[in-house]
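Readers outside the structure-tokenisation community will struggle with the description of the input data as it stands. Showing the layout once, in full, would remove most of the difficulty. For illustration, here is how one protein appears when written out as sequence plus structure tokens:
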Amino acid sequence: MPEELKKYRDQLEGRSMLVKKARVLPIEFIVRGYLTGSAWAEYKKSGTMHGLPLPEGMIESQQLSQPLVTPSTKAEQGAHDENISPEQAGELIGSELYSRVADISLKLYTTAAEYAFSRGLILADTKFEFGLIPSASDPSKEEVILIDEVLTPDSSRYWPLDQYAPGKPQPSFDKQYVRNSLVSAGYRKGWESGPEGNGEGWDIDEAVVRGTQERYREAEEILRNGEQLPGAPQV
């Protein structure tokens, strides 16, 4: 704790953190190990995933031969993130920096996926965000740091291993539960402000809110202990 803040220790301890201001890279590094979500939608149309060609005849939720980094733009609040190719991402931030951060992302995903698998969960995909800060050893240079949430059910797609069945959507512990509820109510891309873009927003049923909270808590419990909570909902 910085010296000037120590006199406030009793107020700050346990409820604060020290942070560094980073220059945020305008790209989300999505690592996919399975063909699902928007990647599956693109594959059905063009046989590609973020512009990357995939083998013919793949099915929904199929495991990829190896995890792939599939970048998207990091849009301003209220705007849409857009899936882009690795080449386009390299043009945005420089190919050398992109390759470096993509490699970090793959290592993070692989480590996390192996851990999740050992606890009975499949980490189908997840997204990472990165920033640049002055290097501690040479302030004239910048070093990469990981920012934002990491490997949460809100930024990742977790599936129960014992229910995995490729060829269809998978039960999940992520915010797909909320997406499905909104879609059934008429939501579609471009209508974020409400039905038919009326600006009134979307109501989410209290049961959906509770169900989402329960799924997030259950995912955490499984990752910690490798077992489902008693009475937890079937996903």
